Amino acid sequence: MANNNDNKMSMEERGRKGGQATAEKHDKDFYQEIGQKGGEATAENHDKEFYQEIGQKGGEATAENHDKEFYQEIGRKGGEATAENHDKEFYQEIGQKGGKSRDND
Question: DSSP letters of 44-89?
Answer without folding.
Answer: HH--HHHHHHHHHHHHHHHHHH--HHHHHHHHHHHHHHHHHH--HH
